[in-house]
Design a protein that fits this description.
By secondary structure, the chain is an alpha/beta fold. Helices cover 50% and strands 10% of the residues. The protein is flat. The chain has 18 helices and 11 strands. 39% of the residues are buried. The protein folds into 3 domains: 138 residues, 3-Layer(aba) Sandwich (Rossmann fold); 138 residues, no CATH class; 200 residues, no CATH class. A hairpin with a 5-residue loop joins strand 8 and strand 9. The strands form 4 sheets. It has a 5-stranded mixed beta sheet.
């Protein structure tokens, strides 16, 4: 493994290009040195889906033919094939499960043992779910064979293993032999040693260059461009850049990842703070540490097509379910303090649009807001004092001595019950179920260009900060979480974050 420290001196001619977005001319000049994995990723992803579909159909046909032949031999009369409606259930169930477990990702082909283990695990889950579905939804009304169903599963596993490991795996190996890609690991040598050793054992990532954080002193874009254009041999093709966020500042980590992504490489960010953005654990098991793959540049971040539909349906259902809870809390608030039940506050949403933010009132009505303003500004500037440390040694930042909070308010803030009325904001379109927390106007006035990027996507009730951060991350780390969410936003991520929010709230990790 080659280790190279990039100082950035070779990029003096590029220093006039500041920021994280590379112009089209510069990007075109780098294209000959870059090797995006997009073509290989698409070929292996769609190839795996087609292979599984063919294996399933062939397995089902062979299982039915075997069953019919065996019965014909025993009874001495021809036996017709049974109605094959259950194969539809198998197809409907298998493809989503395989997708969720990462079997249509390129990374599945990087490690053959992990690929095989994940494939067998996914097949067992798909078989169990399919069997339960087939024999619970009016299965008695149709001709079904349990033996044929079990044989279908066995034949499917054999066929899909043959196709994946006999054909598609060879396609991946041939692609590696042809292009001989290398990867670049940006981060402190000591903290990335384990990850570097792991990458050295993985097909497609074993040719590795190391870049020191010291090289980022002249800017992330310059450092990345230097290593891609100047410091590597002319015949080298770069396929992936790994950014270790733990050995960089949050801003450096984002700018490095954004620069590499804009230049056309695959980008992976290594960070414990971002693990919840992965909808499956395949990459974590593959690389031995929480790693996410950046799916889009921040300039291309926008809500996916069905996000608004999910917001409408989800918020309407949750408002109906939470109505009795709201009524009880409203009575408690009115009986224990003077003032309205609901608290309205101006917040700033996507693209800086203001809206009226709803909460259950948790403070007295005539309190001094300056207490919170001063604390927020200190938190943003990095001068807020940590009140304690978690079991893992993480600093805990939280305003716990705010005299404006009522006794009932302290309870509902602890379990995030004061956030329930925000489902109405979601239903009206001001917010989303999942997204960065909406900013306060006086926060936005303190934002620089990097901070303001968090308003690229709709504000949300829950998100990565609520699940993994809350009071245990700094302001810059929260910004990094928000930007990484914007660059990886998709349905599975939103569903996963929603499911993780409930235990976080029930354990009293919110509010404050």
């Amino acid at each position: 493994m080659r280790v190279r420290v990039i100082t950035g001196a070779g990029a003096a001619g590029a220093r006039r290009r500041r920021g994280t977005v590379v112009d089209a001319t510069a990007q075109a000049g780098s294209a000959g040195r870059l090797l995006p994995w997009a073509s290989a990723r698409a070929q292996l992803g769609w190839g795996s889906l087609v292979a599984d579909f063919c294996a399933l159909l062939c397995g089902y046909a062979l299982a039915e033919a075997t069953r019919s032949h065996a019965l014909s031999a025993l009874q001495g009369t021809p036996i017709q094939l049974s109605q094959g409606w259950s194969v539809v259930v198998l197809v409907i169930v298998t493809a989503p499960i395989f997708y969720v477990l990462g079997l249509y990702d390129l990374e599945a082909y990087v490690s053959r043992p992990l690929h095989l283990w994940t494939l067998l695990t996914a097949s067992l889950i798909a078989f169990a779910v399919s069997a339960l579905s087939v024999y619970m939804i009016a299965a008695h009304a149709l001709e079904q064979s349990r033996v044929a169903f079990l044989m279908t599963f066995v034949f499917f596993v054999l066929f899909t293993c043959a196709l994946r490991f006999g054909i598609l795996d060879e396609v991946y190996r041939a692609w590696l032999r042809q292009h001989k890609p290398i990867s670049v690991l940006v981060g402190d040598f000591e903290t990335t040693q384990t990850c570097g050793e792991r990458l050295g054992r993985l097909r497609g990532f074993d040719q590795l260059e190391r870049v020191s954080p010291a090289s980022l002193s002249h800017g992330a874009e310059e450092a990345v461009r230097t290593v891609l254009e100047h410091d590597l041999p002319s015949s080298t093709r770069v396929a992936a850049v790994f950014v270790d966020a733990s050995s960089l500042t949050p801003r450096e980590a984002f700018e490095t990842a954004e620069a590499a992504r804009t230049l056309g490489t695959e980008v992976y960010v290594i960070s414990e703070l971002l693990g919840a953005l992965e909808s499956n654990r395949l990459r974590t098991r593959l690389f031995g540490t929480p790693v996410i793959r950046i799916r889009r540049s921040i300039t291309d971040a926008r809500p996916y097509s069905c996000k608004r539909a999910l917001d409408i349906v989800g918020s309407a259902a949750l408002l109906l379910l939470a109505a009795p809870v709201i009524a009880l809390l409203a009575m408690a608030i009115r009986l224990t303090s003077r003032g309205p039940v609901f608290y309205r506050q101006t917040r700033v949403g996507r693209s800086g649009a203001p809206f009226q933010f709803l909460k259950l009132r948790s403070m007295i009505t005539d309190g001094d807001e300056g207490i919170h303003v001063d604390y927020v500004k200190a938190f943003m500037n990095g001068t807020a004092d940590a009140i304690a440390a978690s079991a893992t040694g993480e600093a805990i930042f939280k305003k716990v001595d705010d005299p404006r909070i009522t006794p009932v308010g302290r309870f509902i803030r602890k379990y995030s019950l004061d956030e329930i009325p925000q489902f109405w904001n979601v239903f009206c379109g001001d917010m989303s179920l999942v997204g960065p927390r909406p900013s306060l106007p006086y926060e936005v006035r303190e934002y620089d260009e990097w901070n303001a990027l968090r308003m690229t996507v709709p504000a949300g009730i829950t998100g990565l900060w609520q699940v993994r951060g809350r009071s245990r991350v700094s302001f810059d780390e929260m910004i990094l979480q928000d930007l990484m969410y914007a660059q990886n936003m998709r349905l599975l991520v939103d569903v996963g974050l929603c499911l993780r929010t409930l235990p976080a709230a029930l354990l009293g990790g919110g509010g404050g």
